[in-house]
Structures are given as structure tokens and as C-alpha cells.
Amino acid sequence: PQISIKLQGLDGFKFGNLFTVENVLPSPYNESNVFMVTGYRHTIDSSAWTTELQGQLIASKQPHFRAERQD
After folding, report:
1. Mean pLDDT along residues 31-35
2. C-alpha–C-alpha distance, residues 44 and 9, integer Å
3. How far apart are CA 54 and CA 66, in angstroms?
4. 38/3 Cα distance (integer angstroms)
5. Nearest CA to 3 among 45, 26, 50?
6. Above 60 in pLDDT, residue 65?
7. Inter-CA distances, 65 with 1, 14, 61, 62, 68, Å
8. What DSSP designation does 27 have?
9. Which terminal CB of the chain, N or C, has fewer other CB atoms within 10 Å?
């Protein structure tokens, strides 16, 4: 799956950078996936600077858990 998000203007993205998103995608994609930057575009006009970021899903993070010790 791919994602495209529009942000308030940000610079510094490079192809191959990794990012996650929270509270944007439906479950189970919401907090457990890692995307790789596949493209970005800046738009600057008289009212705003916006950045459109494209990403490709590349991996799922393992859920965090705490093993309980059993004696």
C-alpha cells in the first residue's frame, strides 16, 4: 500500500527516509507500520507553503510487549 499526505511546508525529506503516521489510517495500519519516502513535492504560493509526501509501506513494527517471568 501507498500513502500520500499533505503537510504544512517542511523541508529535509530524502528518498528512502522512513516515517510512521499516527491517528490517520484505519486500524490495523494506524500505528504499526513503517513507510519509505518515494516522492515529495513542495507548493509555495501567496497564502501558504505545503509539502505533499508520498510513501510506500515497507514493514510492520513488532508490537511492544513485556514478557512476564514465570517461576
Report:
1. 78
2. 8
3. 34
4. 10
5. 26
6. no
7. 26, 32, 12, 9, 9
8. T
9. C
